[in-house]
Amino acid sequence: MVDRLVNSEANARRIAMVENCFGSSGQPLAEQGRVLVGEGVLTKMCRKKPKARQFFLFNDILVYGNIVINKKKYNKQHVIPLEEVKLESLKDEGQYRNGWLIRTASKSFAVYAATATEKEEWMAHIEKCIEDLLRKSGKQPPSEHAAVWVPDNEAAICMHCKKTQFTVLNRRHHCRKCGSVVCGPCSSKRWVLRGQSDKPLRVCLQCYDDLTRERARVPPLAQPAAHTPHTAAGSGGDSSADDDSDDDDDRAPADHSHDEPKFYGDGEKTEETNNHSSKETK
């Protein structure tokens, strides 16, 4: 399916439209051999609350962004190489249904489709793209992935000490190793986590102890430079600020209508070919 669409005019137009919708806030997406496989709206579990995000599945990357004007303008573009992605289905729990995890070494998060059928379609298409990429490159799928952050509203107190209540003054922080919501004193340590950043990131005391013990078991010459402990609590150079660009307030008004995702396949390509042939005949 993907190979047939590589050089199609329809594919080139679709990619150009995606680029236009992101405008100057996005990066160029047109590359030799790149195909737009599908697109649609998914609900992404952000730090503060679930939010609608526009997703574009290409044969080598997954792109998503904030919806400014539905089908016309998006911003906050994120590009994820599919070779780094691992999917994990989620069980339905209360209002959170038809979800799965998108896991990478640098960031992991949950998304939810409107229906079980759409979930199956999304996951099947993403898995197929990942499988094709790994087969062609000969690479192995990544073995380590970033933790999924626990949403703020699921933790009224620190998940480490079980005592500190979060208020305007006692802010929530996230451990970059396990994803737990913790207070400042319980996340005063820093550690460079391979795959997430070259700078020290905030970790909870439990993870810091675990990382320290793990480091002690590894011979010095075999220790990766990425796992260097830091205790720069209160440092002005804290690189692990808990701000998430994905949590910025949406500018678009709430739109309760639902459009099914579009996946571009052989049928559409055949139709385009027939139309092109008929024009030549004329």
TrEMBL record:
Q: Which domain of life is it from?
A: Eukaryota
Domain (PH): residue spans on this chain: 35-131
Q: Specify residue ranges for compositional bias: Basic and acidic residues.
A: 251-282
Q: Which UniProt keywords apply?
A: Metal-binding, Zinc, Zinc-finger
Q: Where is this region: Disordered?
A: 220-282
Gene Ontology molecular function, alphabetical: phosphatidylinositol binding; zinc ion binding
- Which PROSITE patterns does this chain map to? PH_DOMAIN, ZF_FYVE
FYVE-type domain mapped to chain residues: 152-212
A single Gene Ontology biological process assigned to it is: endosome organization
Recorded hits in InterPro entries, A to Z, give: PH-like_dom_sf, PH_domain, PH_domain-containing_F, PH_Phafin, SOS1_NGEF_PH, Znf_FYVE, Znf_FYVE-rel, Znf_FYVE_PHD
Q: Biased-composition ranges for Low complexity?
A: 220-233
User: What's any one GO cellular component for it?
Assistant: early endosome
Ranges of biased composition (kind: Acidic residues): 240-250
| Oxidoreductase is among the record's keywords | no
What protein is this chain from? Pleckstrin homology domain-containing family F member 2 isoform X4
Source organism of this protein record = Papilio xuthus (Asian swallowtail butterfly)
Q: Gene encoding this chain?
A: LOC106114421
